[in-house]
TrEMBL record:
It comes from Yoonia sediminilitoris. Residues 6-235 form the ABC transporter domain. This is NitT/TauT family transport system ATP-binding protein. InterPro entries: AAA+_ATPase, ABC_transporter-like_ATP-bd, ABC_transporter-like_CS, ABC_transporter_ATP-bind, P-loop_NTPase. Belongs to the ABC transporter superfamily. Keywords: ATP-binding, Nucleotide-binding, Transport. Transmembrane segments: none annotated.
Amino acid sequence: MAQPTIRATGLNLTFQTNDGPVHALKDVNLDVNKGDFVSFIGPSGCGKTTFLRCIAGLETPTGGEINVNGMTPDEARRARAYGYVFQAAGLYPWRTIGGNIRLPLEIMGFDKAEQADRVKCVLELVDLAGFEKKFPWQLSGGMQQRASIARALAFDADILLMDEPFGALDEIVRDHLNEQLLQLWARTEKTIAFVTHSIPEAVYLSTKIVVMSPRPGRISDVIDSPLPRERPLDIRDSPEFIEIAHRVRDGLRAGHVDG
């Protein structure tokens, strides 16, 4: 059997602060397989983003283990195993959209022709062909986030880590980007780990939903979605969708009671 793309075993993370220790993650065990779309949902401060940062090697666990593509997170980071999309698009205003997407490729030493090919390819993937010479301020918030996703895809990492990328957008734009993200996932077959506060977003996007409890962050439920991979937006009115959403809500409630 193939090794999971991401495996956490007995993962703990405690931050030392002036007010004493803060237990951010406690006994987290999780396997994410190649090609999964996994959403992490839970109340603020439950460790969703902290767990994503552990995968990315941006935080160091104080106990347990985490492996990414069979490597430590640090090794995986050096091997460019993942792209990371933050809550804010984080585009440099003085660089064009193409220039922003090229930045990691320049740092990695790709030649100019390869950079140009990759920028063209990822702009088409996120439906921004023709916007390469625009500056971030000339684009809407949703388009800026798509450019941020393109930048994370540019060096073709197997894994895409996404920390509430659509949280600041209005519902209509968010719905549209959810649809586009599913299409992108189907075309690229990336493994995606996605943090959200939205139950409908988690259920609509995911093959697996990880429900987390309040601090210390623990996994209170893991739901394997029975929904088909092809998901029109109106699937959200189906009994199957509503049933999964209820289970997520129940998991969140139970986590609060147990916590």
